[in-house]
Structures are given as structure tokens and as C-alpha cells.
Amino acid sequence: MKIISWNTNGLRATYKQGHFEPLFTKYKPDIVCLQETKSEFDQLPEELQNFKNYHLSLSACKTKKGYSGVAIYSKEEPLSTKPGFGEKRFDDEGRTIVSEYEEFFLITCYFPNGGGGPERLKYKLEFYDAFLSYIEKLKKKKLVIFCGDVNTAHAEIDLARPKENVENTGFLPIERSWMDKLVRKGWVDVYRTLNPDQKDVYTYWDQKTRSRERNVGWRIDYFFCSPEIFHNIKSFKTLTDYYGSDHCPIMIELNLE
């Protein structure tokens, strides 16, 4: 089973630019988790509403059109799917979908950005804590995999210029300490666990400064999983050569036999 996670920075734009279908053609994923889709269902073209043999689950922001949003395209129809994790002020921004499969729960999540002032940073940190509380409860029912744009680089190795960004959201000590807590509770950062010392591998690059050409980036897109399912993950790939967004897709391959 191949699972891809990708912040598309606008699903309709990705589709119009011709970057959507090739992802499926090239990598043949079983499940694709998308973030920052910026679309309601009726805004999507027919081909995206009924894409090939995939089941679509979509959650759009209720408070602002063209903002946030997540989606899951899945070959296998989930046993259940729900938007959000039960807290209205977070769920209304369309940031989370929880899909249940036979072996595990899969969550795609577009975590808030802490920019825009103290209130948004507070919102981000409160979202973090509520999400962690939710997955801690969820893992008691079944194994959990969650993926998406976490909007924080965990350690200095996870961004090109750590010293210059230590006072910027996305690398603030208070944001990084939440990720420390996540790992302390046993959640496995799949990429970093498989590649503990690998440098210069990023998933996001600022478009305004053309930083992708220079690989001045951030690793802020992750797959995390319950420790019990980590041994089933056979590979992790950062698809840095795939374009269509200011983020690149990431992919894991599971062997569940």
C-alpha cells in the first residue's frame, strides 16, 4: 500500500496546471492525502469529484472561502470517514479528515500556521494540544497514521537556515517543544527515524525568493505513526522532483501482510 501526502496550495490550481493526474499515473498510490485544497466540493471540476476509481473525502473551511481544506482520495473505500476531530473552532476551518480502514486510522491534517499575530499562534498551539489529545485516545482503538503539513520544522536539521529562523513562526521553541512532546509520547516521525542524520531534505520552499532552486527549504510535511505499525513501513520517499506546489509530496509504502 502506497500513501502520499501533499500540500497542494490549491487543488483546483494544481489540477489546471496539469500536476494532479500525473501524481497518480507516476506513483500509483493507493491513498492520496491532500492539504490546503482551498475548495468546496461543488467548486471542483467533475473529473476531481469522480476521479478514476478513487473514493473522495473532502473537508472545506466553513468560515472563509478558498482557505485551508483537506481531502483524501482512496482506492479502498474507508470503513468510516469524518471531518474534524470534535472541536468546532478547529473543525470549522476544514483542517482534518479521519478515515478508518481495517488495520488503522489514517488522518490527513493541515495544521495552522502561527503567523498573523499572537492570536493565531495561540490558536495553533491550542490546535496542537487538542489534536494530540485526540490521537492519544484514538490509538487505544486501533493503530494510527497521520500525515500532513505540520507547519513546524522540528529540529535544526529540518531547515536550511535554523539560526535565522529561531524567532519566526514555524521554528519557535514553543512550537518545536510540542513536537518533542509528540515524540516523547511514542509517535514515530517516519522520515527522521529512517534517516536520522540526513541533511538538506526539505518539503517546502518559499516561492517568492525562488528558494527551491537553491534548496533553501523547510521539512514541515510529515508522516507520523503508532510505534506498533512502524515496522510495516517499508520505505519513505520525499518526492522533491515533483512540482505543482510550494511543497513537494511525500510517500510511504506499507506492507500489511
Give the secondary structure arrangement, pairings included.
Layout: E1 2-7, H1 11-16, H2 21-27, E2 31-35, H3 46-49, E3 55-59, E4 70-74, E5 80-83, H4 88-91, E6 96-100, E7 104-110, H5 118-138, E8 143-149, H6 162-165, H7 173-184, E9 188-189, H8 190-194, E10 204-205, H9 211-214, E11 217-218, E12 221-225, H10 227-230, E13 233-238, E14 250-254
Parallel strand pairs: 1-2, 7-8
Antiparallel strand pairs: 1-14, 2-4, 3-4, 5-6, 6-7, 8-12, 9-12, 10-11, 13-14
Helix pairs in contact: 5-7
Shape: globular
Work out the strand percent.
25-35%
- Tell me the CATH superfamily: Endonuclease/exonuclease/phosphatase
The CATH class turns out to be Alpha Beta
| Helix proportion | 25-40%
Count of beta strands = 14
Distance between the termini: 10 Å
Strand order of the largest sheet: 3-4-2-1-14-13
Average pLDDT level: 97
Structure, explained:
By secondary structure, the chain is α+β, with helices and mostly antiparallel strands. The protein has a single domain, classed as Deoxyribonuclease I, Chain A. The protein contains ten helices and 14 strands. The strands form three sheets. It has a six-stranded mixed sheet with strand order 3-4-2-1-14-13. Helix 5 links the parallel strand 7 (104-110) and strand 8 (143-149). The termini are close together. The model has no long low-confidence stretch (mean pLDDT 97).
